[in-house]
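Hey team,

Filing this mostly as a record. A colleague (T.K.) asked me to run one chain through the structure pipeline before their review meeting, and I want the input and output archived in the tracker in case anyone asks later how it was produced. No errors, nothing strange. Just documentation.

Input sequence:
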Amino acid sequence: MLTERHDFHGAATEIFSYAWAMPKLVLAYSGGLDTTTAIKWLNVEQGYDVIALNIDVGKSREQPVVESRAIAAGALKVRVIDAKEDFLRYFAFPALAAGAIYQDAYPLATALARPLLAKLLVDVAHEEGADAVAHGCTGKGNDQVRFDVGIQTLDAKLKIVAPTRENAMPRDFQIDYLKKHGIDIPWGDKGPFSIDENLWGRSCEAGVLEDPWAEPPPEAYEWTRSPEDAPSTPAYIEIGYQHGMPITLDGQEISPLAIVTHLNDLGGLHGVGRIDHIEDRLVGIKSREIYESPAAVILHAAHRALEGMSLSKQQIKLKKYVAQEYAELIYNGLWFSAHHQDIAAYVASTQRHVSGTIRLRLQRGSATVVGRKADESLYDRGLATYDSGDTYDQTAAIGFINIWGLQTRTQARQQLLTPGADTLRIAMPKEDLT
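Output structure:
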């Protein structure tokens, strides 16, 4: 905007000077090279005062240096929000209750963090009076969709700037660009992989992993031991749930952050949580991803076991489909949609009676459920047992079978029997079915 100054010196003529105030922009700032370069680029090349917003969802290796790096790169202000508990309580744990795992493999760690980041990005833009927001996504990944769709849904008036997507800036160019502007940060050896981390999981891609025939090298993993190197003696844990949400560990009620942190450490020690997956990205690319998600894998296994005790056969059947749909809407960036609200309401209803305790054995890469207790269990030992305490009326089975088989007997008589024949002959494979 224009600011007007009036200088009066006796009878001198009024002098007007105009100064242009740069528009504000809030950047989702990770502390890495891409977004550090973005601060300087947005300031110098595009004329923005940049507010660097770092949202701490745990496990980021850049976390200790985000403020100093952002200031060194020329940020007008740095804001750091500790969102670890909110991330788990309002994003990861609802997805856990839904059973949301993308393509039966990926627990959605990165995908779950993006709507939280988009929401806080918009909130801070409003608080700071910013005209635009920015992120460091490329044009090939899923995160650009999650950011853009989330931001546009929450505030369609905010301009979205994506320097990495809009300007091809390889790593060496970015380092030289920062040096040119007096910013010489010792980035160190990034290594051959592209990595994203938060409390719910670590993703690793690129480098040798782009060859789907190649076995992942040991350096692709950081959170988990190789199962061969894990302790031979198993660890036993008990996880307590209330309405589908984990609330206790070994009988002690603790915070979501404490539960997930402990399970990441213990599961990683025992080699639990390694996932090697060929994944269908939203943008139409198949990519090879290595994930490490010890806590998520353990908590999902325990939750499925508790649902097996607490939900009816029909509920379990439908919920499998809903879980798949829920996972896809998260992956596809549709968190802030009416579709999500509808599915979340159904999931919450299914979890009303999903409370109890699951015991697991962690050993050399596996998390095996070995004990189950549900507060409102549908498992009735009197009905299930073959011992003397059996309460099941076995004579009732005869009438049930007669009614259950009525439809097949009727269809066989009316449609499948050869005219004049008394018995049905079913053709074996390769036989003439006529």
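Quick notes for T.K.: The longest strand covers residues 366-374. The radius of gyration is 29 Å.
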